[in-house]
């Protein structure tokens, strides 16, 4: 496409953030966030210790129009300036996805601009190109509340999933451990805080799949071990809680470090001569001990570690707008009857192009 600058409105509603953003992609492939508005529903879900799909969907309905208007205002742009409308079309909580996708369809139709139905994971995968202009190929480690996976990103639309969790996502494991210990939601930051004061050696928690060659994760056994330890030590003192958190986090760090090392080795084997790049995304990347461990392992394999700014690592509209821009400049747009998808693996052959019925 010859156009020098492409401006995309991106909408994200697949979980508990109602988000919209305006992103520009320049002709040279660099990107720029013009606005990025995120309204978290944390307070609405807090009492339930997790995200309630029905509440999430209703809240997206209530807020999305305002958030889109705010995104345009903050960028000082109007609909006439937009070249395309991108929205998360899956995977995620279907009620929320329907709200965002339907809104995007309506806007695209009204302003006579293309719709880009974006895979949420593709949004995470391509963010480092927006923030750090990272060239292909690179290895993505996505660790969020919903996903824990390694993906080889070869190009836009060309993804190979190398490993995933066989049960809980890592952020989910943090949240469940926090819930067992009555630390509140979301659990990741709370567990991290308590772990700082704890003795990581007191409880010997399992390091699931550590000895296996596969790049998959499993966190449910670890979670059960934490529950049993907490039950055995009850009633828990502050020291017990801190030691359990520290033990849990150190098991997670050991597993991540080992898996990342294996994944980087595979990258070196399969793509000889390519500079090794490891991109990390997802809320769990905010954890400092995990970040330090990833730095260490990247250093061991002479890999470049790229961690986009945290507000773009967690769910947001800018990553969806950017993925939309990357696809639009390649001529990849979607029909207005594109169906929302609760499940949509990133490495599926059908990345949605021209999809009508899901
Ligand atoms: O990417 P994200 O904001 O939302 C999605 O799940 O898509 O990730 C949220 C997850 C939650 O499970 C939260 O507990 C976890 O990231 N998290 C953390 C930390 N901050 C957030 N986990 C560990 N340590 C943290 N500091
Ligand atoms: Zn996400």
Question: What can you see in these coordinates?
Answer:
The chain has 358 residues and is an alpha/beta fold. The protein folds into 2 domains: 5-132 and 312-356, Nucleotidyltransferase, domain 5 (2-Layer Sandwich); 138-309, ATPase, nucleotide binding domain (Nucleotidyltransferase, domain 5), CATH 3.30.420.40. Helices cover 43% and strands 19% of the residues. It has 11 helices and 10 strands. The strands form 2 sheets. Strands 3-2-1-4-5 form a 5-stranded mixed beta sheet, with helices on both faces. Strand 6 and strand 7 (148-155) form a beta hairpin. Helix 5 (170-180) runs parallel beside helix 7 (220-233). 53% of the residues are buried. Mean pLDDT is 94; it is low at 353-358. The site of zinc ion has 4 residues, from helix 4.
CATH class type of the largest domain: Alpha Beta
Provide the gyration radius in Å.
Answer: 20 Å
Class derived from helix and strand content: alpha/beta
Fraction in helix:
40-55%
CATH fold name of the largest domain: Nucleotidyltransferase, domain 5
Number of helices: 11
CATH-level-4 superfamily name of the largest domain = ATPase, nucleotide binding domain
Tell me the CATH architecture of the largest domain: 2-Layer Sandwich
Uncertain segments: 353-358
Give the ligands present: 5'-O-[(R)-(carboxyoxy)(hydroxy)phosphoryl]adenosine, zinc ion
